[in-house]
Design goal:
- With 497 residues, this protein is of the alpha+beta class.
- The chain folds into 4 domains: 43 residues, no CATH class; 163 residues, no CATH class; 79 residues, left handed beta-beta-3-solenoid; 179 residues, 3-Layer(aba) Sandwich (Rossmann fold).
- It is 25% helix and 29% strand.
- Strands 6, 12, 13, 14 and 16 form a 5-stranded antiparallel sheet that branches. Strands 9-8-11-15-17 form a 5-stranded mixed sheet.
- Strand 19 and strand 20 form a beta hairpin.
- Helix 6 packs parallel to helix 7 and helix 7 runs parallel beside helix 8.
- The longest helix has 43 residues.
Length: 497
């Protein structure tokens, strides 16, 4: 690579840098340092502005045409308000390299992809909304650039970036594409990050019926774990193309598992931060204390889970949208189901405390609890619910209105419910907090009644972390067994044929 070298005095450096960054094309590299007291700038002049390659796209629909115009350089575009995206045109500009671009779409009501379309021609069908897209470069330009793209879809929001022919959007879920971004990046430079202020809400570039159903314990879809194998009581990950064992951190369904190189690639760990970075803790003042605990550990602790809790929050206040007694998210008072949706959380960890139990039968509270959870699930398909057991109380004040026997009864009812309900799990955080008589340990209690101190929150959080770690490691083992048996059956069938 050739460089032009310019030596400047320190006094002239500021003007030179302004010129360098404003006049040099996006793909030119500007490097600056100081050698022997003099500023040294290297400018890579591999191309001219007029030659640089860019990708342009235009969305349209039968009822509004192509009114948004051509977009480029990571811009996003959406249909006219209230209309659906039905068609798309994509083209390249610039003379830097020979080649073009082609694209393929999946439309509403079809399980088959449309034929490939290229270089500014229209893809899509009138009155049929777009649900997924593939885009790839052709010719010499494909040797120098990657085309990256992502879609915003109904329900799932912005998906992660796809590139070079990968699927972006949803397959088999009947979710429309609401917006799209397309951008060129230098070959093998990785996926773009936060472009145009948009943050992806999912770690996948596409959502399929199989992947969407794959979540939690034994409820995960085997297809998502098809590269796992169970051998000699251990789990390994095999490269689908080479057949070799892969090691290190590997993401499966957006969660990371560690296959230890020192142990021949054996599965040994699960990255809980991947889980908690997509989790929200919901509850009243008892759960609110988790905010203080997490802050004391640092913002990156456990991936920075969201705590949406409110003093005196109850099932009744949530249902009635009671002003001042609702959960808050980004300054807005919201019902729990709305908090989960707006935050994009995939896991909701609920511990409602004892407010609802005071003077009320455990069976009545359990009924409200179930309705509350089902409301969250209905509004947020695919979200997993983790019921954290109601913590015990300490002391003897007003025991008849709130006894540990009543708390234990509620916990028993909710565990039974979780065991019978798809997508709902139960974590016993109360037992590790108890004295031998069943009351809260004095060393964990902050007020002699129901609230915890930082030692208590440490026990709570560690219990949840270990539950999640064990759950997903066991899930991988179960799925590896299924994948191994499936592979054996397939081999036997092939040999028999």
């Amino acid at each position: 690579m050739k460089h032009t070298h310019i030596l400047l005095s320190s006094a002239a450096m500021a003007c030179a840098m302004v010129f360098a960054f404003s006049a040099v094309p996006a793909r030119n590299r500007v490097m600056a340092d100081v050698l022997d007291g003099r500023s040294h700038v290297q400018i890579d002049r591999r191309d001219a502005v007029s030659d640089s390659m860019h990708v342009y796209f235009e969305l349209g629909g039968k009822t509004y045409g192509n009114k948004n115009g051509w977009k480029s350089k990571g811009q996003m575009t959406s249909p006219i308000s209230g209309k659906k995206i039905e068609t798309i045109k994509i083209k390249l500009s610039g003379k830097e390299y020979e080649g073009g671009i082609r694209y393929q779409v999946l439309v509403q009501g079809s399980s088959k992809w449309k034929s490939w379309t290229s270089d500014g021609k229209q893809a899509g069908t009138a009155q049929k909304r777009l649900e997924a897209i593939k885009i790839e470069l052709t010719g010499d330009v494909a040797n120098h650039y990657d085309v990256c793209y992502r879609t915003k879809t109904a329900t799932y929001g912005w998906l992660n970036w796809a590139k070079n022919g990968e699927i972006s959007g949803t397959v088999g879920l009947s979710k429309k594409v609401e917006s799209i971004q397309i951008i060129l990046v230098e070959k093998n430079s990785g996926l773009p990050g936060n472009v145009s202020g948009i943050v992806s809400q999912q770690e996948k570039s596409s959502m399929t019926k199989e992947a969407d159903d794959a979540s939690g314990d034994d409820k995960a879809a085997s297809g998502a774990f098809s590269s796992l194998r169970y051998e000699g009581s251990s789990v390994y990950y095999y490269d689908a193309k080479t057949g070799a064992k892969k090691t290190g951190w590997i993401k499966i369904n957006g969660l990371s598992y560690f296959f230890d190189p020192a142990k021949s690639g054996k599965l040994t760990d699960f990255k809980v931060n991947d889980f908690f970075s997509k989790a929200v803790f919901i509850g009243n003042s008892t759960s609110e204390g988790l905010t203080t605990y997490f802050n004391s550990k640092g913002k990156k602790y456990l991936g920075g889970p969201l705590v949406a809790a409110k003093v005196s929050y109850t099932f009744n206040s949530d249902k009635a949208k009671l002003n001042g007694y609702m959960l808050k998210y980004k300054g807005a008072q919201l019902q729990a189901k709305a908090v989960v949706k707006k935050s994009g959380s995939k896991y909701a960890l609920i511990m409602m405390g004892t407010n609802d139990l005071v003077g009320t039968r455990a069976s009545s509270v359990a009924k409200k609890y179930k309705s509350y959870i089902e409301g969250i699930q209905k509004e947020n398909p695919g979200v997993l619910i983790y019921i954290q057991s109601t913590t015990p109380r300490r002391g003897t004040k007003n025991v008849k209105n709130l006894s540990n026997d009543k708390i234990n009864e509620l916990n028993k009812l909710m565990k039974s419910y979780a065991d019978s309900k798809s997508g709902v799990f139960y974590i016993d955080i109360s037992t590790p907090l108890k004295e031998s008589d069943g009351s809260m340990k004095k060393s964990y209690c902050s007020d002699g009644y129901v609230h915890l101190n930082m030692k208590g929150y440490k026990v709570w959080v560690n219990t949840v972390v270990e539950y999640v770690r064990k759950q997903y490691l066991n899930n991988a083992i179960a799925e590896a067994k299924k994948a191994t048996e499936s592979a054996k059956t397939q081999t036997a069938t092939t040999e028999a044929a």
